[in-house]
Amino acid sequence: MQAYSNPKRASDPHALPDLEIFEVGERGYVDGVESVGPLAGLVWKYEGKQPGYYWWPCFPGCLPDSEPTGPFGTQEEALQNAQEGSQEAEGEPQPKSWAPEFIADSSGVWAGNGLRFAKREDAEAWARGLADRWILVREHRAVPSEEEPNR
Fold it and tell me: Where are the domains of the chain?
């Protein structure tokens, strides 16, 4: 599913959707389809990921700009999470900071580390960096926090 990070842009005839939301199934299938050919590498990449809905920044016809964020229980939850950090949202309450969280074992429980970032992008980048260094990190995300930024 293609969507807008800022729903207000959907009515702009010159704007393109900038998010892609997709489902990863039990066997690593993307949107329920076992991919072959050029997409087979993407399916292989998601084997071992927890089933659920994920999102990433991605314009139509382009490769994604980052690793996927998720999993979420529903497509709507993934879309809501993707739109929470919209820099263009006006008049909507914004969190004081963003907290990186991780799943680092088979429990599926998200855990944080006390770091708080002023920008969602910074928290996601920090979480991605940690996931690249630690082999136990299974999933990572950035979540809103009402604590003051400390990074």
Answer: 2-84, 97-145
